[in-house]
Design goal:
It contains no helices and eleven strands. The chain has 123 residues and is an all-beta fold. The strands form two sheets. Strands 2, 4, 5, 6, 9, 10 and 11 form a seven-stranded mixed sheet that branches. A four-stranded antiparallel sheet has the order 1-3-8-7, with no helix packed on it.
Length: 123
């Protein structure tokens, strides 16, 4: 199971760090990542990190967001800096089996989703 936390209300230009705690063995051996969904919009990829630590970011996240693994706590974090009002969305932690095929930009290619955590950025 995936449990996301760390969302909240922040002013534009501020920072938030989301955390995704994975229960069960082997989660950190999978590819993990974050998606988000803004009101009235489709879910979109934020960032992923694979078993080897390689990362991928959506263009809007590059240079502002950092995804990382915390092996000691069996968690994946998403540090979000320089937040903008357009970053307002529900953020979901996702995971899939290491080596799974299929584009990371397609939500259906991630079979496991956390419950989501709301991030609201005020202008």
């Amino acid at each position: 199971q995936l449990q996301a936390s760390g969302g909240g209300l922040v002013q534009a230009g501020g920072s938030l760090t989301l955390s995704c705690a994975a229960s069960g063995r082997g989660f950190l051996m999978n590819a993990m990542g974050w998606y988000r969904q803004a009101p009235g919009k489709q879910r979109e990829l934020v960032a992923t990190i694979n078993r080897g630590g390689d990362t991928n970011y959506a263009d809007y996240a590059k240079g502002r967001f950092i995804i990382a693994k915390n092996k000691s706590s069996n968690a994946v974090t998403l540090q979000m800096n320089s937040l903008k009002p357009e970053d307002t969305a529900v953020y979901y932690c996702v995971t899939r089996r290491a080596g799974a095929s299929g584009s990371i930009y397609v939500p259906a290619n991630f079979p496991s989703w956390g419950q989501g955590t709301q991030v609201t950025v005020s202008s």
